TrEMBL record, chains A, B:
<dbReference type="GO" id="GO:0046872">
    <property type="term" value="F:metal ion binding"/>
</dbReference>
<protein>
    <submittedName>
        <fullName>M20/M25/M40 family metallo-hydrolase</fullName>
    </submittedName>
</protein>
<dbReference type="InterPro" id="IPR002933">
    <property type="entry name" value="Peptidase_M20"/>
</dbReference>
<keyword id="KW-0645">Protease</keyword>
<dbReference type="InterPro" id="IPR011650">
    <property type="entry name" value="Peptidase_M20_dimer"/>
</dbReference>
<dbReference type="Pfam" id="PF07687">
    <property type="entry name" value="M20_dimer"/>
</dbReference>
<feature type="domain" description="Peptidase M20 dimerisation">
    <location>
        <begin position="208"/>
        <end position="359"/>
    </location>
</feature>
<keyword id="KW-0378">Hydrolase</keyword>
<dbReference type="Pfam" id="PF01546">
    <property type="entry name" value="Peptidase_M20"/>
</dbReference>
<dbReference type="GO" id="GO:0006508">
    <property type="term" value="P:proteolysis"/>
</dbReference>
<dbReference type="GO" id="GO:0008233">
    <property type="term" value="F:peptidase activity"/>
</dbReference>
<keyword id="KW-0479">Metal-binding</keyword>
<dbReference type="InterPro" id="IPR051458">
    <property type="entry name" value="Cyt/Met_Dipeptidase"/>
</dbReference>
Length: 470, 470
């Protein structure tokens, strides 16, 4: 069944590419109200396409009023597989990053140019290419077979590039409409290329910003130096207290709930080889980190406390003899399975408060909450299905890996809708997403139009009940 | 002799005030080329006055070509006291700070307004008021007595507010013209008020700026966090290594050459009482610093290493999940007698280099050299003369104190011309120098016109040879 659909899609390649290019031509930049017309154009095109391919309930899901930056999501369903079959939510997003700096583009960002087998345009890789693969696969099934192997709910977000401000409320408001057994994401993942990897998890995140104060006002360092606390010295001492010489986090209670790495986790981490020397060389950096773990483990299975910004005092040209009274720092914590974001944030805050001496006051701000780490269980049907597809298409066992970064939708869908996600996108990490001259490979488009029919077919071999485990 | 001159100056008070106000009306802002006309106007007025009072060799000393910001100094001499009498350099400056922010002034900064016994104007306190007292005193002696008790060399700088960029070269170029036995400065000092203090020294200073690098470029904290050095963590660790918990400097070799405080130094430091509780309360700060020393000692007789600015990573609104590759810090070191600025700077630099781990590179910049601490020796004739004057005018022994800040001219005149300085200005610390609504007290003008005739008379009791000690 999937071969017929794949053959059909291969035959439609030209038409699918034309539709993808049409979608890319709409400058759907979600962060900037000046691009409202581009957002609207992309939505209209997608609504038309979803209706045209035979989905039902095609509509916009409007964001709740009053959330700045809120953008409607696009919904469409097909439920002809029947209640015994699983319902798969397919996730993608139609918004893109801004194209600045424009002067670095070799061709205009919203006029897709095909050069050397690559579509150069903003949004080609992130993520209109993979999103198109996903819904054109559904269209292929409906056209060739008159139906899909699974029930489908297509959900295309319009706020991914601005941090999904209204997504949690939007999901809450449409819990019944969005009910599904599992989620397949066109965003993220590493299905493309000769060494495919199953991304089966990602780290979580929480954040903290604080200001440190040592006096009511800055003072002249000649007048007070030697008898007044300097906010920058105190900030340095506090930040230095967070880690040991090898970068291990020293925050009491931060790792509460984190079990030691299992042999299975370590084996999975080793399944996608990493040339550590080349990895450090790419960044122009020296080896660093807890020697008890490999680089892959340090960056995906170990939590971090990271200062992203720190500042205070005089930072202009020349010098100023000031004893600063105030300093500031922005921190994010990457979390691993077992950590609660609020508890991790509280542990770091408590550490800072405990280490601040008398005469130093701290004021915290910035983002309560956070996102838990996500893991797709080893025995989850999504995982077996994707592994089977990759094994068949590529030969050999696919590597299993985790992202060091955070994909909030995975946790959000799990927490709000109780469904697990697999990232099965076709973008490759070298395609300059978020940067000038972003591109998407035509070979990835072709590969995706083979892989997606296979995975929907694979999932269609299962029953809905297979996803409903205790 | 000084009484007759003081009486004369008291009678001339109205005319002297008018001349001071005329000088203040010239906006002689040295840092901004837009005020060149104001600088020229102030110079012309002063040249006229010095010639009019009977000084010889009245002229501009032009700054060496090619030094940005260079401004001519004004020179005038009177040598009628004869070679047996000491030659006293009188120092002042005719340039002023910018008046910004203009909107905070209650009356225009260059239209002096007298309210409640205070002249409100930019430059009134710093330092046209005290400078006028100094040269009008010389004028008084010439008018009443036909001569001064000492030979006089008046030197009025035009670059004090911009850090005297060409002063060292200008002094070098005019060593013979500027030869003198001692220097009396109208800038600095605390002769005014009910509790006068002899400022007999100041701390020196040197500076250091450095950038720290951990990688060739910033990286995504999700991708690398846990396995890549963070420049902000490393900066924090380096800065934290400079001091212990109580603020003692931990830099090896930094205090080389600094003898333990003598009983005489400690007694002098105690001679001007300091209410430490009130002092900390003024800054809204908690007590801090090496408990082996009083606050007065910590701020005047102990050296410091002070971070004036520190920054790196993302410092804008919201957050950015970056692992920064670069961080920056600006440091100044306050120096005490016995410390060599270059050696102190080198010690701090060596400490930072020694404490930077492998994989962290440091790049240093900013201001080589520096200024040594200055001390007027206990048996220096300037000190005895000033003490005698204050004793007579105020009753009781004047306090002896040191500035925690740095007055580079004291060291410069000592190093280049071999002469020691006493700061004998009439400005008070509450007069908002460098700030909006700067003012100078009319009572300080009157007091200065009594004290300066007395100190020149006192110095006139000495022979030039008294200043030429081994």
């Amino acid at each position: 069944m999937s071969e017929r659909v794949a053959d059909y899609l291969a035959g439609q390649k030209g038409a699918i590419l034309e539709r993808l290019l049409a979608l890319i031509r709409f400058p759907s930049v979600s962060t900037d109200p000046a691009f409202a017309e581009g957002m609207r154009g992309a939505r209209d095109l997608l609504l038309d396409r979803l209706r045209g391919m035979g989905l039902t309930e095609v509509r916009l899901l409007e964001p709740p009023a009053g959330i700045p930056g809120g953008q409607p999501a696009i919904f469409g369903a097909w439920s002809g597989a029947g209640p015994e079959k699983p319902t798969i939510m397919i996730y993608g997003h139609y918004d893109v990053q801004p194209a600045d700096p424009l002067e670095l583009w070799h061709s205009p960002p919203f006029e897709p140019a095909i050069r050397e087998g690559r579509i150069h345009a903003r949004g080609a890789s992130d993520v209109k290419g993979s999103t198109t693969i996903a819904f054109e696969t559904v269209a292929g099934f409906l056209a060739v077979e008159g139906g899909c192997p699974v029930n489908v709910k297509l959900f295309l977000e319009g706020e991914e590039e601005i941090g999904s401000p209204s997504l949690p409320a939007l999901i809450e408001a449409h819990r019944d409409l969005l009910a599904a057994d599992a989620m397949l994401s066109a965003d993220g993942g590493g299905a493309a290329g000769p060494q495919p990897a199953l991304n089966i998890g990602c780290r979580g995140i929480c954040a903290l910003q604080f200001s440190l104060r040592t006096a009511a006002k800055d003072a002249h360092s000649g007048k007070v130096g030697g008898a007044m606390r300097n906010a920058l010295h105190e900030m340095a001492r506090l930040i230095a207290s967070l880690h040991d010489d090898e970068g291990r986090v020293l925050v009491e209670g931060f790792e509460d709930g984190v079990p030691p790495l299992s042999n299975a986790q370590r084996a999975e981490a080793a399944s996608l080889p990493l040339d550590e020397t080349a990895w450090y060389a790419e960044f122009g950096a020296s080896p660093f980190g807890d020697p008890a773990y490999t680089v892959r483990e340090r960056t995906t299975l170990r939590p971090t406390v990271e200062v992203n910004g720190m500042w205070g005092g005089y930072t202009g040209e020349g010098g100023k003899t000031v004893t600063p009274a105030e300093a500031h720092a922005k921190l994010t914590m990457r979390l691993v399975p077992g950590q609660d974001p609020a508890a991790a944030q509280a542990a770091v805050r408590a550490h800072l408060e405990r280490h601040a001496p008398k005469g130093v006051t701290l004021a915290f701000s910035y983002r309560p909450g956070g996102t838990r780490a996500f893991t797709l269980a080893a025995d989850h049907p999504l995982r077996a299905a994707a592994a089977a597809v990759l094994r068949r298409e590529k030969g050999g066992e696919p590597a299993v890996t985790r992202l060091g970064g955070t994909v909030p939708i995975t946790t959000l869908f799990q927490e709000k809708l109780g469904i697990d996600s697999l990232m099965f996108g076709l973008a490759s990490p070298d395609e300059d997403a978020h940067a000038p001259n972003e591109f998407f490979r035509l070979s990835s488009l072709e590969e995706g139009l083979r892989l997606w029919p296979m995975i929907l077919t694979e999932l269609g071999k299962l029953r809905a009940a297979d996803f409903r485990r205790s």
